[in-house]
Amino acid sequence: MVTHNSELGSGSRPLHGINQAQRHLFYSLLRWSIPHPDRNEDPAGGLVFDFVEDTIAADGSIVAAMTGHDEGAISIRAAEADDVTRELARSYMHEHYRTLLGHFRHETGHFVWNKLVRDRRAFEEFRAVFGDERENYDAALQRHYEAGPTPGWTESFVSAYASAHPWEDFAECFAHLLHAVDTLETARAFGMVINPHGYKELAADVNFDPYNAPSAQQLMDAWIPLSVAINAIQRSMGQPDTYPFILSPPVVAKLDFINKLMTGEAKANSSDM
To answer: What pLDDT does residue 6 have?
Structure first.
C-alpha cells in the first residue's frame, strides 16, 4: 500500500483524521487477511491512496477534488478531513451519513470487488445477489444523479447511492459491513450488553468475535440493537443518529455474501500458514 499525502501540514488535525481513518481500515483488512498488494507487487492494480486537493478556477471558485477508485488507485478529497467542509458536502448531497472513514471503506470496497470477485471470476454468485454489473456504469450514474435513486430503494438497498449500480451496491455494503463488524468488536472489548426494559427484541450480547461470524444474520442480531441504543444515546445528547440506516432482508443477504467472502479469505490464508 502506498500513500500520497496532500500538503495538509505536519501534525494538523486533517492529517490526523486521515491517518486515523486509514488505521481503522487496515485493521479490518488485516483481521480478514484481505489481499492488499501495493504498486510494487501489483503495478496494474495494487492499492495506493492519493489525497487530492481542491483547485481554484479562473473565476475564483473552488473546484472540489473527486473521491473515487480506479484499479486500486483510491483518491480521497483531502478537504473532507475538515469537519465543516465534509458537513457542507453531506448537506449538499442530501446524505444522512458522510465520514472520512466511510469514504475509505467504500472506495476500498471497489478494490476488494476487483480482487475477490472480478479477478476470481465469481460473477455468477455475485450477480445472483447484487444484479448484473455489466450494466453501463457511466449511464447508470448519470441516471442516478439526474432522476434520483431507484423508487422504493429502501426495500432492497442500504443507501440511495447503492441503488445506482451493482458496483456501488457492493462498495456500500462492504463499507456497512465494516462499520458493523468494527463497532461490534469495540462493543465486545468493553463488555457491552444491550437489554432494554420492555424491548426483548432489542436485547443483544456481543459475546462472539465479529470478524469470525459465520453469517451476517448473527452480526445483525447484535448490530441492530446496538445501533438503536447508540442512536438513542446520540439523541439524548442532541446529536444526529450515528447509524441512520434501515437494513432490510435483501440488504442482509448482500452483507452475508460479503461476510462469507471475507471470512473465507481469512480461513484460506490461515490454512496456508
So the answer is: 44
- Provide the residue ranges of all domains of the chain, joining segments of one domain with +: 1-121, 122-273
According to the model, what pLDDT value does residue 11 have? 45
Positions of the chain with pLDDT under 70: 1-14, 270-273
Give the integer Cα–Cα distance in Å for 19 and 260.
28
- Which amino acid, residue 43? P
